[in-house]
Amino acid sequence: MSPFAEVVCPTCFEVFAVPAPDVSEVPCELDYDCEVCCAPMRIIFSAEDGEVVAEARGLGA
């Protein structure tokens, strides 16, 4: 299990890794700024087959 999860920025579409919570702490959400273009986003963490997965959404979504 990786301590990071990959997300795709909803603004610039670049892929980067963010620190992921433990699978016992999901579902959860986190406000985050893109590491490439600095656009604000919300990252939604969930569990899938025992692994933490992340999805980034723009704040307007």
Helix tally? Answer: 0
- How far is the N terminus from the C terminus? 29 Å
Low-confidence stretches: none
Mean pLDDT, nearest integer? 93
Order of helices and strands: EEEEE
Strand content: over 45%
Structural class: mainly beta
Morphology: elongated
Radius of gyration: 11 Å
Biggest sheet details: 3 strands, antiparallel
Instruction: Trace the largest sheet across and list its strands.
Output: 3-4-5
Number of DSSP strands? 5
| Approximate helicity band | under 10%
Features:
5 strands, mainly beta, 61 residues, 3-stranded antiparallel β-sheet
Walk me through this protein's architecture.
With 61 residues, the chain is an all-beta fold. It has a domain at 1-40. It is 0% helix and 54% strand. It has no helices and 5 strands. The protein has a 3-stranded antiparallel sheet, with no helix packed on it. Strands 1-2 form a two-stranded antiparallel ribbon. It is elongated. The mean pLDDT is 93.
Describe the SSE topology.
Blueprint: E1 4-8, E2 15-19, E3 28-33, E4 40-48, E5 51-58
Antiparallel strand pairs: 1-2, 3-4, 4-5
